[in-house]
Automatic annotation (TrEMBL):
Family: Belongs to the UDP-glycosyltransferase family.
Gene3D superfamilies from the UniProt entry: Glycogen Phosphorylase B (3.40.50.2000)
Protein name as catalogued: UDP-glycosyltransferases domain-containing protein
Keyword Transferase belongs to the record: yes
Pfam families: UDPGT
Length: 323
């Protein structure tokens, strides 16, 4: 129980706190913690579940991580120091666009035929479209959804939005028009400025299209890897799990994104949405340059024999074969 009471965010009255083991200039915030962790006391269900899993993980002979050495040097150094065991970086574990279609990858029927989606993308200039998706398990609140829609209209940037019911509703139910500003979908459809896709979208094909200039994402790790492997900068809106830390790394360490908002509880205005979208879409040359550099690192990591991820896999197999 005492270890939970001594967590860094419990030892300060400030929203900002320092985590031992990280560089002195690294700061974290209460709003980056999942609400379960903010309330954890060591006896709750969430705490007991993770105590068991973390304890067992620390007894393993090594960890396999879905990343590459070149994009997470600090995190991998800290992880290896903390667990004292080998860490094999064999990522990114992503399918190629041509290896299988979107339905095979997700197990779901896309909300739009791929051909229609590509046809819509083709009418827009290079790096001009904003792609928006919060993943398969998360959604923003009804109020946030309204502000995002109004901010998109104010920015006048074309967008593809993978849209699901707001937080608090069954994500598998039909989307209701009342969750968006009146006439929003019709206006965006008539002007060809917006494409709303229900439930599922061919994400890899969208991100690889030359007209896509940024990805507004919940920063789930798969989505981050998919975006960066195609050189697409990220606008972060983390909603749960480790997403706030992915967003933090994307912005502060990699320099390939900007965080717009975090959590489903926060309030956001349409003016803030417009401002950040314009910052990344209009003045994001340096972010795009760095994102393309990361995409090249990812490509090289998977090169046969010479790539860092291939070497890590060979080392893992060598260790396993002699154990």
């Amino acid at each position: 129980m005492s270890i939970w009471l001594n967590l860094p965010h419990r030892k300060t009255d400030s929203d900002e706190f320092y985590v031992p083991g990280f560089p002195e200039n690294y700061r974290f915030y209460r709003s980056q913690l999942h609400r379960f962790l903010r309330k954890a006391d060591g006896t709750d269900t969430w705490s007991r579940f993770f105590q068991t899993h973390i304890s067992l993980s620390m007894k393993s002979d090594g960890w396999i991580c879905n990343t590459i050495e070149e994009i997470e040097p600090l995190g991998l150094r800290l992880l290896r120091k903390f667990i004292g065991s080998p860490v094999w970086t064999i990522g990114p574990l992503l399918p190629t666009n041509s290896s299988m279609d979107s339905k095979q990858r997700s197990g779901k029927e896309p909300g739009i035929p791929l051909e229609k989606c590509i046809e819509w993308l083709n009418i827009h200039p290079e790096r001009f479209v904003l792609y928006i998706s919060f993943g398969s398990q998360h959604s923003i609140s009804e109020t946030q959804m309204m502000s995002l829609a109004l901010g998109l209209e104010q920015s006048r940037k074309p967008f593809i939005w993978v849209i699901r019911p707001p937080f608090g509703f069954n994500l598998n139910r039909d989307f209701e028009a009342e969750w968006l500003p009146e006439g929003f979908e019709n206006r965006t459809k008539e002007t060809k400025r917006g494409l709303l896709i229900r439930n599922w979208a061919p994400q890899l094909e969208i991100l690889s299209h030359k007209s896509v200039g940024a990805f507004l994402s919940h920063c789930g790790w798969n989505s981050v890897l998919e975006s960066l492997s195609h050189g697409v900068p990220i606008i972060g809106w983390p909603l749960g799990a480790e997403q706030a830390y992915n967003s933090k790394m994307v912005e502060e360490e990699m320099g390939v994104g900007v965080e717009l908002m975090r959590t489903v509880e926060s309030m956001i205005s349409e003016e803030e949405v417009k401002k950040v979208i314009e910052k990344v879409m209009n003045r994001g040359e340096e972010m795009r340059k760095k994102a393309n550099e990361i995409a090249e690192h990812i490509r090289r990591a998977k090169e046969e024999d010479d790539g860092s991820s291939i070497r890590a896999m060979h080392d893992f197999l060598r260790i396993v074969s002699v154990s």
